[in-house]
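Whiteboard transcription, Tuesday session. T.W. wrote the structure tokens on the left side:
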């Protein structure tokens, strides 16, 4: 493992590095990936991804590369953003960019590791996120981990020629569900 920070069974999380932009920037140009992300609808470049990584504020953002333990494959990114030390909450983001790795449990494990870090290390009280209603796979994953729907912004975004709701979810400290078994 190269520079592991949070270690799971199938994957580990390491700090996102500027050189990761060469691998991850094409993910954001793949319509199947970006249709579920807030950064959708605009072409991405390696330079833009490098700038994003350089501009991260470590006091407000903790962003990680998701790497498989078996073969050291960099498969996605996840992070806590807008970390608020006073009100003790943050906004979570996650993407598995390598589509051939979808459905293998990497996202669920990364989500659990990141939330445990948020609650146990950063002493946050709440982690929240928003997901588009068309991203049913992600909504099932969030529910498995313990996130609860807190609201819905009706017809909030326009994706693939139709209006789509945005689902707002939250997870409080103590609600994180352990893996089955």
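and on the right, the sequence the group agreed on:
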């Amino acid at each position: 493992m190269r520079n592991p920070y949070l270690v799971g069974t199938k994957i580990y999380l390491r700090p996102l590095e500027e050189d990761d932009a060469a691998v991850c920037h094409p993910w954001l140009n793949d319509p199947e990936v970006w249709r579920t992300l807030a950064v959708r609808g605009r072409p991405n470049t390696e330079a833009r991804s490098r700038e994003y990584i350089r501009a991260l504020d470590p006091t407000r953002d903790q962003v990680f590369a998701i790497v498989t333990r078996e073969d050291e494959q960099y498969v996605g990114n996840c992070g806590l953003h807008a970390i608020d030390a006073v009100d003790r909450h943050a906004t979570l983001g996650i993407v598995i960019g390598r589509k051939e790795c979808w459905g293998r449990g990497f996202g669920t494990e990364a989500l659990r590791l990141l939330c445990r870090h948020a609650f146990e290390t950063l002493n946050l009280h709440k982690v929240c996120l928003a997901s588009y209603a068309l991203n049913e796979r992600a909504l099932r994953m969030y529910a498995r981990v313990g996130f609860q729907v807190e609201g819905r912004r009706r017809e909030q975004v326009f994706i693939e020629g139709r209006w789509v709701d945005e689902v707002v979810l939250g997870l409080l400290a103590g609600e994180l569900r352990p893996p089955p078994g």
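Someone added at the bottom: Residues 106-121 form the longest helix (16 residues).
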